[in-house]
Description:
By secondary structure, this protein is α+β, with helices and mostly antiparallel strands. The protein is 27% helix and 18% strand.
Amino acid sequence: MDPSADASIPTIDLREPATEVALALDRACSQYGFAQIVGHDIAADIEGSAWQCARDFFALPVSDRLAVAIPQGEAYGYGPYLNERLAASRGSQTPADLKETFSIGPFDYPVNVDDIVDADPAAAFAYSPNRWPQAMPQMEQVMRRYYDELAALSSRLLSLMAVGLGASPHTFDASINEHTSALRLLHYPDVNHSQVQEGQLRAGSHSDYGTLTLLRQDDAPGGLEVQHRDGSWWPVPAVDGAYVLNIGDALERWTAGRWRSTLHRVQLPPANIERGTERQSIAFFHNANWDAVIDVLPECRVADVEVAEPITAGRHLMERFRSTQPSM
């Protein structure tokens, strides 16, 4: 399929035969870097509880949110409004993004986490503690259930995607069995266009850093857009029951560019819209083990074509994340 023929990303149903799904994932990852995933079997009550919990958190008084703000040098907790510039990870200097966030990291650490941190002190970043608001004692349990479900779905997808490459379904297993993934709640308040600076967006143009991302989004105006090969931007609609899947930089490197880590952004709503523009989404950023080595897969090597040198997943992740933080 020629991606220029259709300004929409494909929808892939995981209830279809596994071989067909694997090939469809490979095509989508190669042509678009994005797909809509349905038939994933994540229970509606788990999704609904997490969604409502996120809404309740951002409705807390600002003092309660700031009480769990991300400390300097750590990764998890509340990220205040106008605190992040995602476009900076691609070298662009833009005004701060019009959003606030709450980030959640791994609940279980590797048995040898102390050895990992001793060997690379920067790993303490990925294993920094989670923070939970006192006003919401249920939040930790709700988010842990959702985190585990999304981690399992990510593993399932990576297995199918490996088959799509012609590789073993277990190709990524040893690199993700102690993953450092992050669950991120995102809130985009109503936009006052009179206060928006030139070049400012709800989330600046960026690619994601890890293996893959799973996004649950609402249909509020001013939403997700992906960049086509010709430089044009395509909106990604909110499909009922679907997760938006996109490839991260780590998988692009693992596949020597066969799969695309596509630029995307969250656009402003129209200035003249006659409805509320508040927006919410939840993203699961799946990351490999901190000490996993990202080396081009044999199935993606081409004779006489130079490939990137191996790199550990953790260092790459941390450096990209810190580039977006104005205070770091």
